[in-house]
Amino acid sequence: MKSEKSIQKKFISYLSNVPEETHKSVLTGFVIKEMKYMNFIDTRSVRVYVERVMDGLTTDILQDMKENVYMYAKKIKDHVENLLEKHRFERFSLLLNTNKIMVQSDYRLPSYISP
């Protein structure tokens, strides 16, 4: 498997060969590709969110992102995972508080599991 640094070098080389005005879309595509294993979110939602994040970045940050694309992709992915965790907790709490989920304090697992 190729190391992150060698891929990073190839990515920077690739960026130097494409027009400057397409850099943001190339970076956006890279971040989306890095997030493709987040199966619990549909690709369209990921694309919309990443595009919104990328639109808010300054020129200086975009320039730094070209050289540290993995770091930025990881930061965005981690942020999305944190948002998901927060949403899951809030949703579970809501369902628990509205009695849509009932907790049985005396439930016991069976002594064996049959296939």
Tell me what the structure shows.
Helices cover 66% and strands 0% of the residues. The chain is mostly helical and 115 residues long. The protein is elongated and about 65 Å long. It contains five helices and no strands. The two termini are 39 Å apart. The chain has one domain.
Give the topology.
Layout lengths: L3 H13 L6 H12 L8 H13 L3 H9 L1 H29 L18
Estimated structural class: mainly alpha
What number is the mean pLDDT?
A: 88
Q: Would you list the SSEs in sequence order as H and E? A: HHHHH
**Quaternary organisation:** single chain
- How would you characterize the largest beta sheet? none
Enumerate how many helices there are, as a single number.
Answer: 5
Characteristic terms for this protein:
115 residues, mainly alpha, 5 helices, elongated
What's this, in brief?
By secondary structure, the protein is mainly α. The protein contains five helices and no strands.
